[in-house]
Amino acid sequence: VAERLEKFKTTIFTQMSMLAIKHGAINLGQGFPNFDGPDFVKEAAIQAINAGKNQYARGFGVPELNSAIAERFLKDSGLQVDPDKEVTVTSGCTEAIAATILGLINPGDEVILFAPFYDSYEATLSMAGANVKAITLRAPDFAVPLEELEAAVSKDTKAIMINTPHNPTGKMFTREELESIAALCKENDVLLFSDEVYDKLVFEADHISMASIPGMYERTVTMNSLGKTFSLTGWKIGWAIAPPHLTWGLRQAHSFLTFATCTPMQAAAAAALRAPDSYYDELKRDYSAKKAILLEGLEAAGFIVYPSSGTYYIMVDHTPFGFDSDVEFCEYLIREVGVCAIPPSVFYLDPEEGKKLVRFTFSKDEGTLRAAVERLKAKL
Ligand code: GLN
């Protein structure tokens, strides 16, 4: 394996899902629904295939999807963007992240992440030869330590990457935090990469896009996808929204990474994004009920549970059970309790910082969540 990828192992999501299968554990690890996406979206894909929409798509997205993305972004963030010049369709948000980083970051450029961070950020930054710095968000509220961030940002900083709502903590960046980060970006001429794939899974406050903070659109790449919002994580439809000068860079990378994204699924994605507001309301209601089941179960089982206001994850502290590390605890949980979760130490530059924590997902049907909760209460 190339040196730039040597330190990265099989992703923790794959490792844990494989262990869960081997031991017959209920999988509350990898964040994907165990139920299907909506019929109207699946029907739209079947129709597109039958209508012969099966050859290469326009490289940066089929026109109807670029337009649907721009319309949704206007509705959600109040920003009017040009669907052909500022929206790029990618193969999942993971490709949007890769295209953004590879298209805009030079070897040696400094990029600041917030730990715990989604694993692909660090690996892709390594592929780009970037110099990664991380600022740690700490329990219980995972607030941004502003003074540490201020001390870290300098004229050498090329970009800051955020994820709100935040995987794996469930934290949402507050308006004050976004404004403070924005001020630092403007002062130091820093780009901002914002992964917002959980924007529709919010339970307390409304989601705020960094691009909507005054003066930020021109330096921000906003990334999102269909997977979480429409329970279609296997479709791998994502996108990046950015002003033309940033879009140009990320499209150069996208052209040579995948060239174009699956044509019929893009047609169906356009139909999905035009769903009425009632779809999103129902999604939130469903996930609120699921979250309540898992939350009650984790508390009753004896974890220290941290508040989660967005995403489909809950972060807990496992120290009441007396294990030395998150990995050891999660292995015990799979083998002896029959429940799979994610050990988050891989989401830190220094794994020690994550070793008391464990992430559970509630992206499963209520029966599965109840069965997992029964096991946690009975066997932990
Ligand atoms: N985003 C999902 C999670 O955090 C799954 C990621 C993956 O399997 N690569 O669990």
If you had to describe this structure to a student in words, what would you say it looks like?
- The protein is α/β, with parallel strands linked by helices and about 375 residues long.
- It is built from twelve helices and twelve strands.
- It has helices spanning about 10-25, 40-50, 65-75, 90-105, 120-125, 145-150, 175-190, 245-255, 265-275, 275-300, 325-335, 365-380, and strands at about 25, 85-90, 110-115, 130-135, 155-165, 190-195, 220-225, 240, 305, 315, 340, 355-360.
- It is globular and about 55 Å long.
- The mean pLDDT is about 95.
- Glutamine binds next to loops.
- It comes from Zea mays.
- Keywords: Aminotransferase, Pyridoxal phosphate, Transferase.
- One of its GO terms (molecular function) is kynurenine-oxoglutarate transaminase activity.
- This is Asparate aminotransferase.
- How can the largest sheet be summarized? 7 strands, mixed
What is the CATH third-level topology name of the largest domain?
Aspartate Aminotransferase, domain 2
**Category from helices, strands and their pairing:** alpha/beta
Write down the CATH class of the largest domain: Alpha Beta
Could you report the average pLDDT, rounded to the nearest whole number? 97
Instruction: For the record, give the distance between the C-alpha atoms at the N and C termini, rounded to a whole number.
Output: 40 Å
Order of neighbouring strands in the sheet with most strands: 2-8-7-6-5-3-4
* Helix/strand order, N-terminal first: HEHHEHEHEHEHEEEHHHEEHEEH
CATH architecture annotation of the largest domain: 3-Layer(aba) Sandwich
Give the overall shape: globular
